[in-house]
Design goal:
Distance between the termini: 72 Å
Largest sheet: 5 strands, mixed, barrel
Structural class: alpha+beta
Helix content: 25-40%
CATH superfamily of the largest domain: Nucleic acid-binding proteins
Radius of gyration: 22 Å
Number of domains: 2
Shape: elongated
Low-confidence stretches: none
Number of strands: 7
CATH topology of the largest domain: OB fold (Dihydrolipoamide Acetyltransferase, E2P)
Strand content: 25-35%
Order of helices and strands: HEHEEEEEEH
Number of helices: 3
């Protein structure tokens, strides 16, 4: 066998091993990938059973407790999207009306989503980038003073 043939075989084997490694990594990470949506985008872009993160603001006057103790509230975004959230458990200490929130859930079509976790904003400067851009487009952004 000539050197050129040997070199091509080695390159082919190494390429195949790299492709296999990349495939195994992607296969292993498929359950860890979580998409981020606003309430307006959720029904259009998410598929049923997909694990998603939903970001927006907690609507004023929407927070209540269900008879079973679950926390119920509505998340809104700048495009006028609204989504009712049900969360079984205690919310984070920073959970407040008119503050940023990110909900993790498994998307099921319907008016109410059951959250598996809540992440409240960490300081007064945090607003999800998509919400911030939409507020700027509508002329309602009050940040960057």
């Amino acid at each position: 066998m000539r050197r050129r043939s040997q070199r091509l075989i080695v390159i082919g084997v190494v390429g195949a091993m790299l492709a296999l490694a990349a495939g195994l990594i992607l296969f292993g990470l498929r359950d860890s990938i979580v998409s981020f949506y606003t309430p307006s985008e959720l029904a259009q872009k998410a598929s049923p059973g997909e694990r998603v993160r939903i970001g927006g603001l907690v609507e004023d006057g929407s927070v209540a407790r269900a008879e079973d103790g679950a926390l119920l509230f509505t998340v809104i975004d700048a495009q006028g999207g609204r989504l009712r959230i049900r969360f079984q458990g205690e919310p984070p200490n920073l959970f407040r009306v008119n503050s940023g929130i990110v909900i993790e859930a498994v998307y099921q079509p319907g008016e109410t989503q059951t959250a598996t976790s809540l992440m409240a904003r960490h300081d007064e400067n945090y607003v999800p980038r998509e919400v911030q851009e939409a507020l700027k487009e509508r002329g309602e952004w009050k940040g960057d003073r």
